[in-house]
Each structure stands twice: as C-alpha cells, then as structure tokens.
C-alpha cells in the first residue's frame, strides 16, 4: 500500500451518499449572488472532453463552460440527445469516440459497469499527457459483481485505469452533483469546502487539483490509486461536506473493509 499524503490547498468539500445526486438546473439560475464563481482565466482555458452527461457530467459541463473552457460532451445515446445541454452551455455535443479528441482533460463519468464497453483506443486521439478524471463508484446493485474489485482487491479507480489502459485521477466521486453548481466559494471563504483527489501521476493530479480550485473548491491530496479506497462509497469522507482538516481527518479514519452495502 502506498503512503497517504494528506496535503491540501485551502479548505475542503465533498458530498453524496449516492454521488451524482441532484437535479440539474441552469448554473446562472442556481448560483448564489453572494458567492460568484471564480473568474475565468483565459490563458489557462483548456479543451475538456466529458464522457457521461448525467448529473455529475452535466453539471461539470455547466460549470466548465461558464469558466471559459472548450467542452466536448458525450453520452451513450448520441449527440442528438444533448442538444438542450449544448444550447444551454455552449458545449459541443459529440460521440463518445470524439469526446477525447485533442482534449487536455478527459472526464469519465459513467457507471462502472459501462467502463469495459467504452471504445478501444478511446484516448488515442487525446492531447499528449492527457489527464483522465474518474468520478466513478462501484455499486454492486447497479453494476453487478466486478471480480477485479471483489476478488483481486483492486480499488475502483485502479480497476477503471486497467480497463482504460491509462492512469486516472479519482475526484468528484463523493460529490453531490448539485453542489458543483451551488457550493463554489472564493478562495479563503470560511464555508469553502474541499474534495479528496487520488492518483499516481503527480503532474496529472496537480492539473485536477488546479481545476477543482478554479471551480471554487479546495483539495486534499488523498494519495495514490491504491489509497483511493479511502474515498470510496461507505467511507467517512464519502458524502462529507467539511473543510480541509475535516476531510483529512475523515480520510485518515477510513477502513479498507468494504461494507455489506458495497459488496456483491
């Protein structure tokens, strides 16, 4: 097991008992006027591909386009089903195969059971050193039994990375979708919350932490992918809304044993 480095930048935030919970609404209508989103940093605008347009994927599309990023979004049903989201946000609806094309960041936000069905060579057309964010969680009741997780003891994101053939950074998996819209705060705000972020690639992890901070949340370095069990469903940090110290404490208190609700 790799060592756990609970370093941070600012304060903390986390969320759901079922990530992705929340009814999407227009970001402009949702956000509190007293807490405007961080300003767009034009020189840092990136091309971002989002695979999955459910609650998490949809709200990340809303926020990232509002910040000025060039977002391509895809789902399993085809770009023609994303016209409303595209009209609302200015994102480009594309096929799953097209979403990573030239992208500097690719967000994979689909049910775990769908990961093996993603196209082979999915990331071949992405930018060099593309950063891949994994927001997924293993719910046996939804995903069926996954032997790599249950029998081999792989963390959920290690299993996802194996299937993608590319390392990932685990983030947003314990976040209420609605919080992505509603709970952004300026750096230093007393009620700014943080997200745990786990990954093996230090440079990729820093890219993700910077993006989360731009979205209006602080981050805590939760270690490598083999440590990412500390933020999986059923752990103290999963669904937690707390500051940096609260998230660090919750990560440290986690047990590697999966609870009965999260085993098949």
TrEMBL record:
<dbReference type="GO" id="GO:0016491">
    <property type="term" value="F:oxidoreductase activity"/>
</dbReference>
<feature type="region of interest" description="Disordered">
    <location>
        <begin position="1"/>
        <end position="46"/>
    </location>
</feature>
<dbReference type="InterPro" id="IPR028939">
    <property type="entry name" value="P5C_Rdtase_cat_N"/>
</dbReference>
<dbReference type="InterPro" id="IPR051267">
    <property type="entry name" value="STEAP_metalloreductase"/>
</dbReference>
<keyword id="KW-0560">Oxidoreductase</keyword>
<protein>
    <submittedName>
        <fullName>NADP oxidoreductase</fullName>
    </submittedName>
</protein>
<dbReference type="Pfam" id="PF03807">
    <property type="entry name" value="F420_oxidored"/>
</dbReference>
<feature type="domain" description="Pyrroline-5-carboxylate reductase catalytic N-terminal">
    <location>
        <begin position="47"/>
        <end position="138"/>
    </location>
</feature>
<dbReference type="InterPro" id="IPR036291">
    <property type="entry name" value="NAD(P)-bd_dom_sf"/>
</dbReference>
